[in-house]
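The authors assume throughout that readers already know how a fold can be written as discrete tokens. For illustration, here is how one protein appears when written out as sequence plus structure tokens.
>
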Amino acid sequence: MNKPDVPNVDQLRELLLPTPPFSYWPQTWGWRVLLLVFLALIAAWAVRRYLRWRRDRYRREALALLDRLAQALDDPSHRLQALRELPALLKRVALSMPSGESAARLGGHEWQAFLQRHSDVPLPADFARRLALLAYAPADRVHALGDAEQRALLDTCRRWIEVHHVAV
């Protein structure tokens, strides 16, 4: 009596998949044109994003400096220096804008109008006056500002730097 052959896993073979009856590549020239247009749109979008990223370098640098000034506000020995640098930072940001040359001579109401004109959010009505106070007032008057008012000025400056629009 012969023993029947017991199937073994080693005897299994992988089945070959049949070749599909059609090609996955588009057969008509219209699909190729559509693909090229789509790739051109993606390339144009990427170039535009890169140029905007490069153009906004000054904004990223200003926000990084503003973060350092915010940390300096926590240290009483560096607080006055940090508050004095805040108006200069805003002026440098305004000068770094593509149309910022006109901001160099502005002060008072004109400076307030410039800041408001380039902002998407409303600014406090006395924002330019408070910036001038930080820049030119005696040290004891700057120290007299409360922590809440100092933080409010810092937050307003941050918001303006983040959202100001640049006419290109």
About this structure: Residues 56-163 form one domain. The longest helix spans residues 29-55. The two ends are 95 Å apart (CA to CA).
